[in-house]
Design goal:
The protein is an alpha/beta fold. The chain is built from 14 helices and 14 strands.
């Protein structure tokens, strides 16, 4: 940002919390000197804590005429608090885009307040209401990035399962709805070194702010946090390169499906812990079966229409030594949704409990 302002003919003084120099920009290690007399002060900091710390230190040097532009990604409540504390001169203006967009002046800027003309040097300024709204919109944009990376990961997993090469998958995905993301991340997706433009740790921080503020579940936020613990400085592309689910986690789910396919309860005993229960609502009444009770429901022979039945694992989420999973079973006019809790005991995964939903549709005489 500092280089972009300087390239547009602005007089810029740079300051960094880490003391980092900015090539082509006059820098100082004195925060007061950096902001003293400035008409516009732009913050590009990691989080709300950093914003409060830096502004607290700079307060005495800021002139009353200065416009404070905060491009940092913070929680909506933090943005509102800072705006209330600093008044109309504080413009919360988070940005959409990474380093290439800054360098080309094509950022999308979500400005809450009267943005100074200099901000247009970075890209297109959009007025979005108050500071909390601007902060919330930025978090939603980052949620969409995380979701796109998750969708890309799933597509790559499916391609590999179909025997396609990574080059084939990336080449065709670049033509589809994820094309822009795939094009930008092509080198990383093909295993070639590329500089990080947005770290997975920063994205995980943003998703934590999002889910804390919204209270709504967002599974990829947990995966981002796990990735950030392992490789915090890696580019967010690592979310699309997450390896497939460990086959050992799938083993009890496959044994469970085999029990339905064959009618042999021995498969269920391999799939479940001995203490497991199967629970749901049957004919309007809540039922809770022990494993023995559940196994007693099966005759040891496959159903007459077994060839027409379908069972698909629809989701698996692993959290260390526990996991959650779901499966859809289509048995004629009945569709079951099974939800599992699994636990790793030693080196083996087993189903600890299952709950299910059963829905029936009237048969069509024409089929």
């Amino acid at each position: 940002m500092a280089r972009r302002f300087a390239a547009q003919g602005r007089a810029v003084t740079g300051w960094s919390r880490s003391g980092q120099e900015i090539p082509g920009v006059a820098c100082t290690d004195d925060l007061g000197a950096a902001v003293r007399g400035a008409g516009v002060v732009v913050l590009a900091l990691y989080d709300g804590h950093a914003c409060r710390e830096v502004l607290g230190r700079a307060r005495g040097a800021l002139t009353e005429a200065a416009t404070l532009v905060n491009t940092s990604t913070v929680a909506p409540a933090e943005a509102a608090e800072l705006a209330a504390e600093w008044g109309p001169a504080c413009v919360h203006a988070p940005v959409i885009g990474s380093i290439p967009a800054v360098e080309s002046g094509t950022l999308q800027i979500l400005a809450a307040g009267a943005a100074p003309a200099a901000l247009a040097d970075l890209g297109h300024v959009r007025q979005v209401g108050d500071a909390a709204t601007a902060a919330a919109l930025k978090l939603v944009v980052n949620a969409s990035l995380a979701g796109a990376l998750g969708a890309l990961r799933d597509a790559l997993h499916q391609a590999a399962a179909l025997g396609l090469t990574r080059e084939q998958a990336v080449g065709v995905l670049e033509l589809g709805q994820l094309g822009g993301l795939v094009g930008r991340k092509r080198e990383e997706l093909l295993g070639r070194p590329a500089p990080s433009q947005f770290s997975v740790a920063a994205l995980a921080k943003d998703l934590d702010l999002l889910t804390t503020a919204s209270g709504a579940p967002f599974p990829i936020a947990a995966r981002s946090a796990r990735m950030a613990e392992d490789t915090p400085d890696s580019d967010v592309t690592v979310l699309a390169l997450e390896p497939p689910i460990d086959p050992q986690v799938l083993a009890p789910l496959r044994a469970y499906a085999a029990g339905h396919a064959t009618g042999d309860p021995a498969h269920f005993r391999r799939a479940f812990l001995a203490t497991a229960h199967v629970e749901g609502v049957r004919e309007g009444q809540f039922v809770s079966w022990s494993l023995d009770d559940y196994c007693a429901l099966f005759s040891g022979r496959p159903a007459a229409d077994e060839a027409l039945r379908r069972r698909v694992v629809t989701a698996v989420e692993v959290h260390g030594t526990v996991a959650t999973a779901s499966m859809t079973l289509r048995h004629g006019v009945d569709t079951f949704t099974d939800c599992f809790v699994l636990v790793r005991v030693g080196e083996e995964w087993r189903i600890a409990n299952k709950v299910y939903d059963r829905r029936s549709t009237p048969s069509d005489p024409a089929t």
